[in-house]
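tool_call predict_complex ligand=coenzyme A
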Amino acid sequence: MMQNYGKLRTRVVAMPKDTNSKGNIFGGWIMSQIDIAGSLTVRDLDSGNFATVAVNSLEFKKAVKIGDTVTCYGKIIKVGKTSIQTQIEVFAERVINHEEVCVHVTSAIVTYVAVDNDGNKRLLKTD
Ligand SMILES: CC(C)(COP(=O)(O)OP(=O)(O)OC[C@H]1O[C@@H](n2cnc3c(N)ncnc32)[C@H](O)[C@@H]1OP(=O)(O)O)[C@@H](O)C(=O)NCCC(=O)NCCS
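tool_result ok
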């Protein structure tokens, strides 16, 4: 099922320190996981440095709870001259009534630009 969403990029347990004032996991923490997952996804094409240039879409579909195992899947959806667009899907696994449940919690599209050592954009290495 997960194969349509690309490769597994990150997998981590959501901890109490990552909560917002309502006790759910803070959206910024999930965005950080997404950015890490996207930065690993672009390496499928080019092993050089990248800068995150845009979060083109982001949808928090369901809340993430303390203790959930949060998994990000990522794939490349568009390749330009200097940029790569990634699609990241986030899932939370939790145990409810002794049964493991997997919830699709967040979807995002994030764009990265290939940069040189000075932080200027560079052409993608396509070999
Ligand atoms: C990334 C950066 C070097 C791009 O430099 P730039 O000269 O402004 O780049 P451009 O406007 O020519 O865009 C470069 C590419 O990004 C794409 N791009 C730019 N803004 C975009 C957006 N909002 N959504 C999707 N793609 C975008 C362009 O289409 C172009 O793609 P292509 O070359 O594949 O056709 C510069 O914007 C920058 O340094 N930004 C800060 C990055 C940063 O600090 N990120 C956070 C921490 S990593």
